[in-house]
Each structure stands twice: as structure tokens, then as C-alpha cells.
């Protein structure tokens, strides 16, 4: 086992080098996402170390920064893509086409056209269909390449109802329909390579029993089908602790449980972690611009908001926040709020060294679904992102300008 496999299962916000964060914020301004590629590598090593015979496909949707995709592809990961755009990113980051999987969820025509055209050039690409309809649409496009079938295992899990997919009719074909559909696809000439399911995102604690059930149903299905499967893909969803007092997932135990639940079956096990590989590799830096005392409490306005990090507003998600200030100040209760004109634009209420205007705050576990879900709502430019790797640091996505806000607009040319 390499030393990185033994690396700590979570990097807490308190472990980030505050002097370095301070320097990065001064150099590149805020709000600023910082991603540590060394930590991404460590997370991948720990995941592949826990699942030594499995193939690890990074779920790109958690963070599609080219530097992140390159880092993971170089480390040996495959890339699971949710759209044509993600497939394009995976390939241009240098991921080998045989390690790219496109998971089609109600795919728009353009996505299927693109995936089929990629597979003409790179027949190693796998397309995962989650509806009978999608298989027909592939046939109409003369695609008979590598096909995986996403099933709905009837069991879901996740940190919020909005990210629990396993039992949601939107995702996959009913598991009992899978054997006949796979046989038909095989008959029709597809290269049927795998079965796929994903319980949901942010699986921890009690949710593990749902995960176990899903894996066991997938094992049963793999033994039941008549086609030779190259792989059995059980999706991602491995959770990380967002609160400082929470334990991290015991990955070795999860891997053991997974193996046990799967039982003996043909084909390689595939896991698709997104969050686990990148969450704690990223922090969001934001500066205090307004302090408003209200009785004993205070509202602390910062320059990052729901447009920079949507998770608190969208899922009531908690992200730890720490002050990157060396001055010795007594703690105060502070409601940290963004600059968006909506009451949902609040990170939460924290005990922080009494914040003052100009203070730098760091938001933890921002590497997954952070920048990725940023928007320009309220015409707010998206932040810059910086990658660090050992001593080195570099901007990998520049900050948007006000000019970028109107970049796509054109004078209306009435017909
Ligand atoms: N595989 C499939 C087919 C997925 O749909 C997803 C996530 C993953 C893998 C990776 O799940 P992860 O390991 O990252 O939990 N925006 C939400 C999360 C949405 C996840 C959607 N699918 C959040 O910020 O919590």
C-alpha cells in the first residue's frame, strides 16, 4: 500500500495553510476557488486502494476543471460524463476513449449525435442508456457500439431528496425489465458491455444499508442476464463529512460490504465517485464587505453567494466556514450572507472571530459541485479558480468580467 493510500480520509478546513490562502486571495482577488491537485491525487489513490480490482470512473459533474480531469486521467481514472460537453472535456483532458463513459439521462438530440459521432472515431466509448427510448434513438442513428444499461434498482439514498436517484423513475429502466432489454439489445447487434445503477449522492451512515441493497440487487441482475458483461457499475455517491465533528467514511469497510453484497459475478466492478475525489481538495475564499450588528448577533455580508456556491441555497447544505485572520478576537455569532437579492442567499450561522470588513473567510469542502454549479444570476460574474500543486499555483479559469455578462447578446434582428 503506497503512503498516499494511507492519507487521511478527509482534509479538514483547519488543515489548510492560512498564510497561503491569504496570499492567494491577495494576488487573485475574491471570491476565489482554490483546488489542490495533490489532494485530488491522494483521494484517488485512497479510492483505488480500497477498491483494488475495481475500475474507478470519476463523475466529472462534480468538478470539470481541465486540470482536475487531467490529474485524475493521469492517475489512472476513467471519466463518467453526464453530457456531450463533459465527454468533450474528458477527451480534451487526455482521457483515453476506452475510459470514457457517457451516461445519457433524457439526452437531448445533440448529445446523442455528438456521442455517436465520437464513437465512430473512437468505438471504445461506452454509452449508457437509461430508457428503452434511448436505445431506439441510438438504433435510429445506426449506433450498435458499446452499450451499458442503466437500471432503476428501486432503492435510493443521498444527503437530500433532490440528489437521491436510485428509486426515482426518471433514472434507469425498471430492474425487472433489464434482462429482456439486454437480450434484445444483444440480438439487435449492440455490443452490450455493462449494467449500471446509482443510488444517490452523499451516502453516509444509515444510507449505507441502501447502498448495500442496491449492490446486492445489481449482483443478482448480473447473474440473471444472458449476455456476457464486461462490468457492473454501481455508481458513485460516497459521502464526505461537511461538519468538523462528523466522521469520514470508512472506505475499506464500504469496499468490503460492496464486495460481499455483490457476490460472485462476471465482470469488473465499476465505481463512479465524484464528490469523494474533489470535495476536500477545494476551498472557496470570500471577503467580508459588510458587517451589520443586530442585537447580540450580526449579519456578515461577503462577496460570494448562492451564485458562487449554490449548495446551501439549493439543498440546505452545510459548509464549514473559518476566518483566515491572525488577529486574536473573541468569537461572535455571525450569519454569513451573500450579495444576491434573495433571502435564500445565506451560507448559515457560525461562531467566528468577530468579523470585520475586509476579513478573509474560507469555505470548506467546496471542491465538489461548487464552481460547477455557479451561475451569473443577478448578473454576477463567476469567480476565478486557482489550482495549487505542491509549491506551485496558477489560475486555471480567469474571473469573469462585467463584459462577459453580455457576451452572448446581440441586437435583435427581427425577421
Ligand atoms: N454517477 C452518476 C450516474 C451520478 O448521477 C452521480 C451524481 C455520480 C456518479 C457522482 O455522485 P457523487 O459521488 O459525487 O456523490 N449537486 C449535488 C450532487 C448531485 C449528484 C448528481 N449525480 C450536490 O451538490 O450535492
Task: Walk me through what this model shows.
With 415 residues, the chain is of the alpha/beta class. The chain has 2 domains: 104-273, Alpha-Beta Barrel (TIM Barrel), CATH 3.20.20.10; 280-406, Lyase, Ornithine Decarboxylase, Chain A, domain 1, CATH 2.40.37.10. The chain is built from 12 helices and 18 strands. The chain has helices at 18-28, 37-50, 66-75, 84-92, 109-121, 132-140, 178-188, 207-224, 251-262, 275-278, 311-315, 402-405; strands at 32-36, 55-59, 78-81, 100-104, 126-129, 146-152, 173-174, 191-196, 231-233, 268-271, 282-294, 297-302, 321-323, 331-337, 346-353, 360-363, 384-389, 392-397. The strands form 2 sheets. Strands 1, 11, 12, 13, 14, 15, 16, 17 and 18 form a 9-stranded mixed sheet that branches. An 8-stranded parallel β-barrel has the order 2-3-4-5-6-8-9-10, surrounded by 7 helices. The longest helix is centred in the middle third of the chain and has 18 residues, at 207-224. Bound molecules: ligand LLP. Ligand LLP is lined by residues 59, 61-62, 80, 103, 163, 165, 198, 201-202, 235-238, 272-276, 311, 315, 369.
Amino acid at each position: 500500500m503506497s503512503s498516499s493510500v494511507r492519507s487521511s480520509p478527509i482534509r479538514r478546513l483547519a488543515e489548510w495553510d492560512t498564510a497561503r490562502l491569504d496570499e492567494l486571495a491577495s494576488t487573485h482577488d475574491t471570491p476565489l476557488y482554490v483546488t489542490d491537485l495533490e489532494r485530488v491525487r491522494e483521494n484517488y489513490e485512497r479510492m483505488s486502494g480500497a477498491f483494488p480490482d475495481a475500475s474507478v470512473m470519476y463523475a466529472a459533474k462534480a468538478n470539470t476543471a481541465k486540470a482536475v480531469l487531467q490529474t485524475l486521467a493521469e492517475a489512472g481514472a476513467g471519466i463518467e460524463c453526464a453530457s456531450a460537453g463533459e465527454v468533450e472535456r474528458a477527451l480534451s483532458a487526455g482521457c483515453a476513449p476506452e475510459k470514457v463513459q457517457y451516461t445519457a439521462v433524457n439526452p437531448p438530440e445533440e448529445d446523442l449525435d455528438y456521442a455517436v459521432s465520437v464513437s465512430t472515431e473512437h468505438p471504445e466509448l461506452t454509452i449508457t442508456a437509461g430508457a428503452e427510448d434511448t436505445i431506439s434513438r441510438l438504433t435510429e442513428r445506426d449506433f450498435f457500439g458499446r452499450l451499458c444499461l442503466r437500471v432503476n434498482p428501486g432503492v435510493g439514498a443521498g444527503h437530500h431528496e433532490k440528489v437521491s436517484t436510485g428509486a426515482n423513475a426518471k433514472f434507469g429502466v425498471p430492474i425487472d425489465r433489464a434482462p429482456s432489454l439486454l437480450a434484445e439489445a444483444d440480438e439487435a447487434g449492440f455490443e452490450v458491455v455493462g449494467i449500471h445503477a446509482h443510488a444517490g449522492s452523499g451516502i453516509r451512515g444509515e444510507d449505507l444499508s441502501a447502498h448495500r441493497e442496491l449492490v446486492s440487487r445489481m449482483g443478482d441482475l448480473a447473474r440473471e442476464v444472458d449476455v456476457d458483461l464486461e462490468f457492473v457499475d454501481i455508481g458513485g455517491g460516497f459521502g464526505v463529512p461537511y461538519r468538523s465533528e462528523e466522521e469520514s467514511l470508512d472506505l475499506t469497510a464500504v469496499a468490503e460490504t460492496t464486495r460481499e453484497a455483490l457476490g460472485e459475478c462476471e465482470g469488473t466492478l465499476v465505481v463512479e465517485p465524484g464528490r469523494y475525489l474533489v470535495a476536500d481538495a477545494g476551498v472557496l475564499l470570500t471577503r467580508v464587505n459588510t458587517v451589520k450588528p443586530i442585537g447580540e448577533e450580526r449579519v456578515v455580508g461577503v462577496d460570494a453567494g448562492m451564485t458562487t456556491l449554490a449548495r446551501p441555497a439549493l439543498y440546505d447544505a452545510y459548509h464549514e466556514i473559518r476566518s483566515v485572520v491572525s488577529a486574536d478576537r473573541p468569537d461572535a455569532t455571525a450569519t454569513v450572507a451573500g450579495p444576491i437579492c434573495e433571502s435564500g442567499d445565506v451560507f448559515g450561522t457560525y461562531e467566528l472571530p468577530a468579523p470585520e470588513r475586509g476579513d478573509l473567510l474560507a469555505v470548506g469542502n467546496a471542491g465538489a459541485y461548487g464552481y460547477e454549479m455557479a451561475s451569473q444570476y443577478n448578473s454576477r460574474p463567476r469567480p476565478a479558480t486557482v489550482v495549487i500543486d505542491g509549491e506551485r499555483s496558477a489560475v486555471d479559469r480567469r474571473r469573469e468580467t462585467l463584459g462577459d455578462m453580455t457576451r452572448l447578446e446581440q441586437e435583435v434582428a427581427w425577421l
